[in-house]
Amino acid sequence: MKIKRIHAHFLISIGSYSNERIGFSFELDEGESIDSTVAELRERAKRIVGKTADELYDTRNKLDRECRNLETKLNKLGQEWDATAQFLKAQGINPVAPSMPQFRNLLNAVTVESELIIETQDEDTDDNYEEDDEDY
Q1: 15 beta partners
Q2: Residue 107 and residue 111: Cα distance in Å, rounded?
């Protein structure tokens, strides 16, 4: 028996009891192995589905921890800055030493500028009206 066409369907777990079904139909060329072709299709299906929900949650939690650590460091540096500014003011070295600038919610303040699209007409059309055209 010679197999010429493969229909391969894979049920891939994406975590939290969820699955995604991916299927392929593939024609075998002369000399191709069914086993290696199915293995390649399985890997392709995994790449298409992407990371599992557990991997995405782990990445999110890791980034959340990193943000909290950076915020803690920023708060500590802000306190050191303010203490230095108070010292400079108290000693008369720099009476206008500024406090640490606040960098809170900068991403929320970002706005997207709207695009302005102006439709123009071709200059070759008869709809163009110029004052010189009044001499008829």
Answers
A1: 18
A2: 9
